[in-house]
Amino acid sequence: MRGTLILFTDRYPFGKAETFLDSEIRYFTAAFTRVILFPLQRGDDNHVRNIPQNAIIKEPVFKKIKKSPELIIKGIFNFSCPKKFLFEGFRSGVWCSPARFRIWITHLLMIRAVLSYIKKNNLIILFNEADVLFFNWGLRWSQVIPFLPENISSHIAVRFHGSDLYEHLNSDYIPWRLEQIKRIDSIITVSETGRKYLSSKYGIPEEKIFLSRIGTKDCGLNPYKKTETVRIVSCSNIVPVKRVELIALTLRHLKSRVEWIHFGEGPLKNKVVELARVLPENISWQFPGEVSHEKLMNFYQTVSVDLFLNVSSSEGVPLSVMEALSFGIPVIATDAGGTSEIVSEPGGKIIPVEFDPSFLAEKIEQLISSENYQQIRASARKIWEEKCREDKLCPLLAGFLLEKSVNNKN
Questions:
Q1: What is the pLDDT of residues 315-327, one digit of tens each?
Q2: pTM for this one?
Q3: What is the C-alpha to C-alpha distance for residues 399 and 340, in angstroms, rounded to an integer?
Q4: CA dist., res. 327 & res. 349, Å (int)
Q5: Domain 4-215+390-409 sits in which CATH superfamily?
């Protein structure tokens, strides 16, 4: 018997998020007899992605968490004991910091609602019968770990990315983080940077942290054709950490004729649009919004792209960058998180997280006018083949979890 894996997700298989799980789920279901999916929320998108036959979807805890009264209602009106939550608040001094208080109260409501959901559905029995409990993120679902019974028999594994890992991205405060770390049997990170952070921050020996980068599919090469217009693409949510507005500010300094296409939506879109509207005449732009992964891959397969940009202030190891590299598209990106582990010369260029837009513009002009540009494209693809191929990386993660399952039985 190959056992049961329970996979805790934010939304997958609902909606368009967590696209990397589309690939990984096939390897998980091949390794384990049964995979049970527990999404935290369903969201507004009713689309449900296809999953293998031996994968089962459980009803999400929430319809929608963000900007929804459901979190407050479910978080307050339940039978979870408030003692631990109040103690955490006093211990952490959340009353002295509005930012910390917001984090504490939000997490308090969410965890209490999840614990009530677990109790209502008698899930501890199911959790104990499973061989591995695999939490896809270091926040949200996995924050119930300190509240699970001490004698739970399943192997607990948690994967940390970027925003769910670094405390400085969360006002230097993640409730119950130390208690969570202590209860995890296997810690998984998507970057070497993340592994070193966990080791230095919490004193965990690096050899006890499993490095498992997320891979992407091989969808072929981008059909590059040199033209008078340089096509630059970026792809991300339009949120503060992604700093998309810096791309618009950078393009002001370019002398070349450029078409900029940004895929993604977010609360700062209007700000970016306003900046784009005042760009000089040699710069055109398009914001197609949030598109399906299939449409994005089709774009890369059919439209010539000269350069991909990522200017985030923080990252795990960005999938958008991996996908661009897979098509042989050169990348210029900030040295955020584990980005430098997959972007390097001659396939691309790493720049400091803090940069002047004119500096980035200079690097763009240098790259697109390079006499070795075709070699740069070939190098970008080679980096992806060596470090980011899904068919190399996914089996390693599935095998690691299966090994823990076998060891747990013994």
A1: 888 999 999 999 9
A2: 0.84
A3: 26
A4: 16
A5: Glycogen Phosphorylase B; (3.40.50.2000)
